[in-house]
Amino acid sequence: METSFDSDLIGEIFKRIWRRRAAERERNEVTEAPDTEVGVGTPKKSRPTLANAKALKLSSELLRLFVTEAVQRAAMIADAEGASTIEATHLERILPQLLLDF
């Protein structure tokens, strides 16, 4: 069996990103409409974004496949250039096509 990323770790990364984006949205809304009153009739709900276990497992597997493919493609470029290690430039060269393929 192939190893995969820990679904709990991926879930925590997603939660952190969701919290950061929610905070940014709140800051943007406050700066865009400072005169707006937030009262009883305001339809805003501050509930957290959630992902179920199956979605996290699937996201972990997709991330694993993406990283594996990136490393394999970068290794092919490094090998063609005669390098023994993968450098950032190798990843930069394969990234545009990799993103299009995924």
TrEMBL record:
Record keyword Phosphoprotein present = no
Q: What are the protein's UniProt keywords? A: DNA damage, DNA repair, DNA-binding, Nucleus
Q: Name one GO biological process term.
A: kinetochore assembly
Location of the region described as Disordered in the Swiss-Prot/TrEMBL record: 25-47
The record, for InterPro entries, names: CENP-X
Can you cite an annotated GO cellular component?
FANCM-MHF complex
Query: From which domain of life does this come?
Result: Eukaryota
Q: What is its main location?
A: nucleus
Q: Give its localization.
A: Nucleus
Q: Name one GO molecular function term.
A: DNA binding
Record-stated family: Belongs to the CENP-X/MHF2 family.
What's this protein's name?
A: Centromere protein X
